[in-house]
Amino acid sequence: MKILLTGSSGYLGTALLRHIPAQRPEWDLHITLFSIVPSDEMTNAHHLDLCNPQSVARVMDKVQPDVIIHTAALNSGDARAMYETNASGSGYLAREAAKQRARLIHLSSDVIFDGRRGNYNEDDAPNPITPYAVSKADAEKNVQASGADAVLVRTSLIYGFKPLDPRTRSVLRGEMPTLFTDELRCPIWVDNLCEALIELAEMEYRGALHVAGTQALSRYEFGMKLVNALNGDPSLISAATSRSGSLTRPLDCTLDVSRAQSMLRTKLMSVDEMLEKNKKIG
Ligand SMILES: NC(=O)c1ccc[n+]([C@@H]2O[C@H](COP(=O)([O-])OP(=O)(O)OC[C@H]3O[C@@H](n4cnc5c(N)ncnc54)[C@H](OP(=O)(O)O)[C@@H]3O)[C@@H](O)[C@H]2O)c1
Prior knowledge:
- 39% of the residues lie in helices and 18% in strands.
- By secondary structure, it is α/β, with parallel strands linked by helices.
- The protein has one domain: Rossmann fold, CATH 3.40.50.720.
- The site of NADP nicotinamide-adenine-dinucleotide phosphate has 27 residues, from helix 1 and strand 5.
């Protein structure tokens, strides 16, 4: 099976670059890079700019993958650039996937929901309230409109220790001194997510699927658990409420993962389970 992994230099992409060869050594893995232009010796690496439809078509024509795991995205910054990368770029990729009958595992986000209610399932209607969320929600619409054989994997905060995810690194360094007590998420350990994505690549399921951790935590509770597990300094963090800030942000984006849990062999885990397991490994 030929796999195209987009965003291979990102946090999730880098983890998949470890997991895919380890779990499926028989897969012919091709990767895309954006900021770094691959050298000629890197025969399985391809330069991809999602904002450029010709670049997307060129990579797809060259690789002709059976499955695409699409992790590439712009997760912060300028609203227009996020829209072009995430919404338009995912649409270009999905249209090429549909033409070639390639399966598309598309990474989406819990923040496509407005966060007013929480415990969202796959039948709940997205209602994005930030520019990033709009770009990810419209990415989903574009993927669905393409007719590609696609799974929209809605996930939550991705964390891991080896290497540390960028958010946890910032918390430990004291670069995120306040964490919100009223923004709830279902964080997922990066290895747990990789295992589920690899499994989904080989399945026939199409449509939205919530793949996140099984424990709902506020950003503050989550941050404190990580700081304690990693022997960080808890005095670097203080609690605040998102509601009292000036930005409009989705509060409770917790996901109901029961569909994924009933379909997948991969057992989705809670933060407490992962920290316990990691302690034993360490
Ligand atoms: N991290 C989370 O907590 C979280 C939560 C929910 C959903 N997600 C979703 O999960 C996926 C992976 O997230 P992540 O944290 O691994 O992201 P990340 O670390 O920020 O990596 C993003 C990747 O996308 C690439 N990229 C950016 N702009 C591009 C463009 N115009 N064309 C092609 N590639 C481009 C980047 O390449 P360069 O390195 O060269 O810039 C990088 O490899 C994303 O779809 C994200 O929306 C993440």
